[in-house]
Amino acid sequence: MMKMRFFAMSLALASGGLASAGAATPFEGRLADGQPSSSCTVSGGDKCSTFYSAALDITILNDWSVGTGFWDPAAPAGSAQALAAAAGHAASGLAGWGLPAGDANQPAGTLNQFLSIWNAVGASYAGLSGQFDGVGLNSFFWASTLAPPNLPNPNASPWWFRALTGMQGTSIQASNRLYVVAVRAGDIATAVPEPRSLLLMLAGLGALVGLRRRLGPR
Predict the structure, then answer these.
(1) What is the pLDDT of residue 148?
(2) CB 59, CB 30: distance < 8 Å
């Protein structure tokens, strides 16, 4: 069993203005190339690669089962941060992916993205697992946020989010391996390509221009 420190926990509840069961999803599907899609699905052959939340202005990886890792802000191999960065890059070709914010002392919004996501799917596990692929029934996910030291624990501890109930709490950093979901600021549909990707694209365009010149006018 995980040794958890519950100095602050919250059961997230849906409130006015938030999505309810059966309501239109507030998340916009994105394909593997980052392009918007109104027809891609959570799973299956036409699976969405990511989802964009306009309310939070973040892109969320559709796959919530990329693995488990320990929490370490330096992002060494095997850490939750490294897993999030790698999974997001593999899905989009873009850097800048990390863990969602999740401070239970904060309301839904920028500082508590997990609570915002939970509320937006109707504050239920059924809603969460129906919106994203691979959400395990008993999964605990790391948040990017550190809680300040609190007696009797003199060390800051990272927050976590429980998929089944929407509960949030804190845990000792190195002693637990929790699940990972990756998010990226902004909409990947409008993201500027990374330098390497941009160079490859320019090289391809240059090759096409050179070929056209060799072939001459038609």
Answers:
(1) 83
(2) yes
Measure the CA–CA gap between 169 and 102, rounded to whole angstroms.
9
pTM over 0.85: no
Q: What share of the chain has pLDDT > 70, as a percent?
A: 73
Query: SS3 sequence, the chain?
Result: CCCEEEEEEECCCCCCCCCCCCCCCCEEEECCCCCEECCCECCCCCECCEEEECCCCEEEECECCCCEEECCCCCCCCEHHHHHHHHHHHHHCCCCCECCCCCCCCCCECCEHHHHHHHHCCCCHHHHHHHCECCCCCCEEEEEEEECCECCECCCEEEEEECCCCCEEEECCCCCCEECCCEEECCHHHCCCCHHHHHHHHHHHHHHHHHHHHHCCC
Residue 190, Cβ density class (10 Å: 0-12 exposed, 13-18 middle, ≥19 buried): exposed
Has residue 29 got a pLDDT over 90? yes
User: What was the pLDDT predicted at 155?
Assistant: 73
Query: Contact, 118 vs 166, CB < 8 A?
Result: yes
Per residue in 51-65, pLDDT tens?
999 999 999 999 999
pLDDT of residue 18: 35
